[in-house]
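Troubleshooting: if your tokenizer reports a length mismatch, compare against these two reference records.
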Amino acid sequence: MKAQAILRPLTERDRPVWQSLWDGYCAFYKVRLPAPVIDGLWEKLTGGDPAIHGMLAESAETGEALGLMHYVLHPHTWSLKTVCYLEDLFVTEAARGQGVGRALIEWLAARGRDEGWFRLYWHTDENNETARLLYDRVAGPATMVRYAIPLTK
């Protein structure tokens, strides 16, 4: 069964709903972030940084929050066009498999086409099999390997 979702940008009044989804996302990845980092992210998402944006997916029937998406727009060395990094995508466990994640990605890809972006890209944990099934269908199998060096303690 497909969920009918309404997709919309985050607003300042969404903090409690967003916080619940964000907590679920962090729990999924077994990450605990300090409160100042979470507060700073919220500030950026609601207008404190023009490059960072957030979307909310809600049930068209009940208004219940189904998922969230954060994305970052940035320049690229291979093009004069903007690149979009889909940094965070989370769908509640109850809504998984109902097309919410796909709807969020497709919304972002459509926006990128409309605005002439060069590329949309993202990463996920190699063990996130459920998400990878969707990502392989939406974008095709990944061809790049990601490396990271933590720079803070």
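Reference record two:
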Amino acid sequence: MVNPCHSGGALEIFLRPVLPVPVLGLVGDTPISAAVATLAAFLDFEVATSGDHSGATAVVVAGLGKGEQDAVRAALDAGVGHIALVASRTRGAAVLDELALSDAERARVRTPAGLEIGARSPQEIALSIMAEVVRALRVDGLASSPAPPAALPQQAVDPVCGMTVLVGPDTPHVRIDGTDHWFCCPGCRDRHVAA
């Protein structure tokens, strides 16, 4: 990037995005939940077992009959986009029927949880669940709970050198005839004021 300021110079910027790891909420104390926790950690998910699902990308409910309705309701209320309920097709449907979910809420709950790979052991079931979570995250564009969009930084063009500057509390600034002018450096500001 060439610096258009009169002082000249060039600047090279190399960016490597470091995004926060996705959060996987986990409910239940079963061999399946233990296997999911191990695999999720290996896949660089932050595993949260607190029951507070705000900010979670997905929630896996593996209580095998204990506290499932409350866990599903809490995840839905927290805005989680992918909820995996570990249950048979019949029992999963019964749990969801008891909750009297709207169509939109019901679409966010996957039961039986995981992709159909013929899984039998807790580790294989965890693999199928995490494969479905990863697919939802990478292919379907699943994100964590909706957050307010971040405000973009305000930009201005330095009227002296033409450089685009980010407006902040330390950016050189002057107000002339009710109009704000922002500058790349105090030198450009002083030249503008003198002119």
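Descriptive notes for reference record two:
- The radius of gyration is 26 Å.
- Confidence is low (pLDDT under 50) at residues 144-149.
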